[in-house]
Amino acid sequence: MEQRLTLITLGVRNLAKMRAFYKNVFGWSPLDSSNEEIVFFQLNGVQLALFGWKDLTEDAAVSARGKGFRGFSLAHNLQSEKEVDDLFDTLKTRGAHVVKPPEKTSWGGYSGYIKDPEGNLWEIAYNPFMNYDADGNVLPS
């Protein structure tokens, strides 16, 4: 199987609230293919989809009873500690809930965490071991 990620779909309990968070707090624009049942955001080479929790569990044929920590986080990497601090300041002024302010990490980077209205964790990080292209996309090691 080819090493590729095309789409990340988050099962959400309140689609309107989550759409507003990603649009107003992160400043992202939904794709035209979005509707009342699903919202798509084009990222750099991958899409993020927001889909009703119940609808997603039915589609995947799994139980809808999951809650609490889901065992994953999403990450947004930047090219400096200053960029991390600046983005945290912006997100806080837009109402983001800070879980952990940015700080030096044990692995040599710099990161902090916010969460969206339904508890999905976003790590905002600078990883000095990653290489980036001119558009800020991570290059293979």
From TrEMBL:
Coiled-coil intervals: none
InterPro entries, A to Z: Glyas_Bleomycin-R_OHBP_Dase, Glyas_Fos-R_dOase_dom, VOC_core
Pfam families xref list: Glyoxalase
Domain of life: Bacteria
Domain spans labelled VOC: 4-127
Name this polypeptide is given: VOC domain-containing protein
UniProt organism field: Fodinibius sediminis
